[in-house]
Amino acid sequence: MTVRRGRGYGLHLLLRTSDQTINVHLGPTRYLDNEDFRIERGSSVDVKGEWVPTDGLPAMTAFEVKQGDDVLILRDEDGAPL
Prior knowledge:
Layout: E1 2-6, E2 10-16, E3 21-27, H1 29-32, E4 46-52, E5 59-67, E6 70-73
Protein backbone atom coordinates (compact mmCIF):
# COMPACT_ATOMS: atom_id res chain seq x y z
CA MET A 1 0.00 0.00 0.00
CA THR A 2 1.29 3.47 -0.87
CA VAL A 3 -0.25 6.68 0.46
CA ARG A 4 -0.03 9.73 -1.78
CA ARG A 5 -0.94 13.35 -1.22
CA GLY A 6 -2.25 15.07 -4.29
CA ARG A 7 -2.28 18.83 -4.71
CA GLY A 8 -5.92 19.80 -4.23
CA TYR A 9 -7.09 16.28 -4.86
CA GLY A 10 -6.94 14.87 -1.35
CA LEU A 11 -5.29 11.79 0.01
CA HIS A 12 -5.10 8.53 -1.96
CA LEU A 13 -3.67 5.11 -1.28
CA LEU A 14 -2.71 2.32 -3.62
CA LEU A 15 -4.23 -0.86 -2.26
CA ARG A 16 -2.62 -4.05 -3.48
CA THR A 17 -4.74 -7.19 -3.43
CA SER A 18 -3.72 -10.67 -4.53
CA ASP A 19 -4.70 -9.90 -8.13
CA GLN A 20 -4.83 -6.13 -8.66
CA THR A 21 -3.82 -2.66 -7.47
CA ILE A 22 -6.63 -0.25 -6.65
CA ASN A 23 -6.35 3.55 -6.45
CA VAL A 24 -8.42 4.49 -3.36
CA HIS A 25 -9.45 8.12 -2.83
CA LEU A 26 -9.71 8.68 0.92
CA GLY A 27 -10.77 12.31 1.06
CA PRO A 28 -9.68 15.89 1.53
CA THR A 29 -6.24 16.25 3.09
CA ARG A 30 -7.48 18.92 5.52
CA TYR A 31 -10.00 16.45 7.02
CA LEU A 32 -7.55 13.57 7.25
CA ASP A 33 -4.85 15.72 8.87
CA ASN A 34 -7.19 16.19 11.85
CA GLU A 35 -7.99 12.51 12.32
CA ASP A 36 -6.03 10.23 14.65
CA PHE A 37 -5.68 7.46 12.06
CA ARG A 38 -2.44 6.45 10.39
CA ILE A 39 -2.05 3.85 7.66
CA GLU A 40 1.41 2.32 7.62
CA ARG A 41 2.94 1.05 4.39
CA GLY A 42 2.47 -2.72 4.13
CA SER A 43 -0.32 -2.86 6.70
CA SER A 44 -3.55 -4.75 6.14
CA VAL A 45 -6.73 -2.68 5.79
CA ASP A 46 -10.36 -3.24 4.87
CA VAL A 47 -11.94 -0.59 2.66
CA LYS A 48 -15.65 -0.02 2.09
CA GLY A 49 -16.42 2.27 -0.78
CA GLU A 50 -17.79 2.86 -4.23
CA TRP A 51 -16.08 1.91 -7.49
CA VAL A 52 -15.48 4.81 -9.85
CA PRO A 53 -14.84 4.62 -13.60
CA THR A 54 -11.28 5.33 -14.79
CA ASP A 55 -9.16 4.71 -17.85
CA GLY A 56 -6.22 3.41 -15.83
CA LEU A 57 -6.08 1.61 -12.50
CA PRO A 58 -9.25 0.27 -10.91
CA ALA A 59 -10.37 3.03 -8.52
CA MET A 60 -12.75 3.58 -5.67
CA THR A 61 -13.87 6.32 -3.31
CA ALA A 62 -13.55 5.10 0.28
CA PHE A 63 -16.44 5.51 2.70
CA GLU A 64 -14.70 3.69 5.55
CA VAL A 65 -11.25 2.26 6.25
CA LYS A 66 -10.67 -0.32 8.97
CA GLN A 67 -7.24 -1.23 10.30
CA GLY A 68 -7.32 -3.69 13.18
CA ASP A 69 -9.85 -2.33 15.68
CA ASP A 70 -9.57 1.25 14.37
CA VAL A 71 -12.18 2.55 11.94
CA LEU A 72 -11.97 5.79 9.97
CA ILE A 73 -15.32 7.05 8.67
CA LEU A 74 -14.78 9.28 5.63
CA ARG A 75 -18.23 9.84 4.14
CA ASP A 76 -21.85 9.85 5.17
CA GLU A 77 -24.45 7.38 3.84
CA ASP A 78 -24.94 9.51 0.71
CA GLY A 79 -21.22 9.60 -0.04
CA ALA A 80 -20.63 13.22 0.98
CA PRO A 81 -17.22 13.83 2.58
CA LEU A 82 -17.30 14.48 6.33
